[in-house]
Design brief:
By secondary structure, the protein is an alpha/beta fold. It has 13 helices and 11 strands. The protein has an 11-stranded parallel beta sheet, with no helix packed on it. α5 links the parallel β3 and β4. α8 runs parallel beside α9, α9 runs parallel beside α10 and α10 runs parallel beside α11. The longest helix has 11 residues. It is elongated, with a radius of gyration of 23 Å.
Length: 329
């Protein structure tokens, strides 16, 4: 096989800027690099001028059949992303803090095949942009909205009414989200296996009741800082989500032993559990958890002052598979 014939393999080893330089070395290379297999995935994270390179790729037609683009933490502008391929199934815009709803409108116009979108810490996007994406991109299965602080229940309602295939939804630090938005998510996105509401402090028992009632496939759930969550809410969650493997209850300060008893009674597949900062638990609750959750590999009870002994040696005597003693930092 000649070097030219091996172009798709070479493209997996070179940076996008290097490939563009290669395309300028001869007509043969230029033609060969129009092979769709050369541009299935484009990673611009380590490029000095990612926006300029992306414009070159789209103008030359190289990116016409691209399926995945990674701009994570790139310094790009709205203008850089006005042209996107219709073939796109995944786009990573994590940490691209200069972009706003205009980019999401471009995505909604061009990318109806999109399955994965990552928007971590995109502080300029609003409900309008998410609603536009939801209306057009109903094949979405993976959505990361972590740190998008302007979003409210309207975004969750839009996604839950239009994008019924979502399995992974991250709303970390979306502080304006309430139980009402979560209720819409739980009732409609019944394929969810991952749901993250870390530091969404307005959430409480209505959230865990809705999740426990509807999300029977859920394996990961995070409600860290849920100031209104009580034992009744945890009981509803435990009874409904019996396949949970990871649960974060950090700083849910209203909880008592009844929560641990419910988890021990129902959630036998738990492997990761954070109870960090909850002072209402006692040895009785920990013993109940021990009887029902023998698979625990990570347990954080830092700050659980109601326990008489939280040393690693004691905890491993209760949970033989335990290896990690601090999760929350």
């Amino acid at each position: 096989m000649s070097l030219v014939e091996s172009a798709p393999f070479l493209c997996r080893c070179l940076s996008p800027s290097d490939i563009l330089h290669l395309s300028m070395t001869s007509r043969c290379w230029n033609q060969r690099l129009h092979d769709p297999d050369c541009w299935v995935e484009i990673d611009l994270r380590f490029e000095q001028h990612p926006g300029t390179i992306w414009k070159h790729l789209t103008a030359s037609g190289y990116a016409k059949f691209t399926k995945s683009i990674n701009f994570q933490f790139c310094a790009i502008s709205n203008d850089d992303l006005q042209s996107l391929p219709s073939s796109l199934t995944a786009i990573n815009l994590n940490g691209c803090r200069e972009i706003d709803d205009s980019v999401l409108l471009c995505i909604s116009d061009a990318c109806q095949e999109l399955e994965r979108i990552e928007l971590y810490w995109n502080v300029r996007i609003t409900n309008m942009g998410i609603q536009a994406v939801a209306e057009s991109c109903n094949k979405l299965t993976y959505v990361n909205l972590s740190g998008c602080k302007n979003l409210t229940d309207s975004s969750l309602r839009a996604l839950s009414s239009q994008c019924l295939l979502i399995r992974h939804l991250d709303c970390t630090r979306c502080e304006r989200v309430t139980d009402v938005g979560v209720d819409a998510v739980a009732k409609n996105l019944t394929q969810l296996t991952y749901l993250n509401f870390y530091a969404c402090s307005q959430l409480g028992d209505p959230t865990t009741t809705a999740v426990g009632t509807h999300l029977k496939l859920l394996k990961f759930f995070d409600i860290c800082g849920g100031r209104y969550l009580t034992d009744a809410g945890v009981q509803q969650l435990a009874e409904g989500c019996t396949h949970l493997e990871s649960l974060n209850l950090t700083w849910c300060v209203n909880l008592r032993d009844a929560s641990l008893e419910a988890l021990g009674r129902c959630c036998h597949e738990l492997r990761v559990l954070s109870l960090h900062g909850i002072q209402g638990f006692t040895d009785i609750g920990l013993q109940a958890l021990c009887r029902g959750c023998p698979q625990l590999e990570a347990l954080d009870v830092v700050g659980c002052s109601g326990l008489t002994n939280n040393s690693p040696n004691y905890l491993t005597s209760l949970f033989p598979k335990l290896q990690t003693f601090k999760i929350h930092s």
